[in-house]
């Protein structure tokens, strides 16, 4: 989720927009998703119908049920990409977050398309999305919406 580059605060989303959750579900269903441990812990569960790949430097990190066809735990983005390529639905691999994982993936050129949710406002985030405007300047699709007090836009950008 992007709000002037803002992603989250205190390891939690800045707002809850039902249309955004549905959009995310539609984009990620059936594909491997890569996320950092803190993002995974903030969700608190294995996301169904996706191969969940969790990156952590903690060698003792475990989560019940996160194995086999449900997902795996790895220690680097490179290992996560390797695992994702072997997973069902790997024709599209989703970098799910958080901020450190987004930054590393964009800076290393591992991302071809950005699926962003842009929300008007300033929310005092402590985690930010990396600079992407120079790399991703081609608008592939754009759809605006309103949910309660939030005006948002689903924006897909390519290189």
Give descriptors for this structure.
159 residues; 4-stranded parallel sheet; 3-stranded antiparallel sheet; 4 helices; single chain; alpha/beta; Dihydrofolate Reductase, subunit A; 23% helix
Structure characterization notes:
- The protein is an alpha/beta fold and 159 residues long.
- The protein has a single domain, classed as Dihydrofolate Reductase, subunit A, CATH 3.40.430.
- The protein is built from four helices and ten strands; from the N terminus they run ββαβαββαβαββββ.
- The chain has a four-stranded parallel beta sheet with strand order 5-4-3-6.
- The longest helix is centred in the first third of the chain and has 11 residues, at 18-28.
- The mean pLDDT is 92.
Provide a compact summary of the structure.
The protein has 159 residues and is an alpha/beta fold.
Segments where pLDDT lies below 50 for 5+ residues?
none
Categorize the overall geometry: globular
Total individual domains: 1
Distance between the termini: 19 Å
Per CATH, the superfamily is Dihydrofolate Reductase, subunit A
List the helices and strands and how they pair.
Blueprint: E1 6-9, E2 12-13, H1 18-28, E3 32-36, H2 37-43, E4 51-55, E5 71-74, H3 77-85, E6 94-97, H4 99-107, E7 113-119, E8 127-128, E9 138-147, E10 150-158
Parallel strand pairs: 3-4, 3-6, 4-5
Antiparallel strand pairs: 1-2, 1-8, 7-10, 9-10
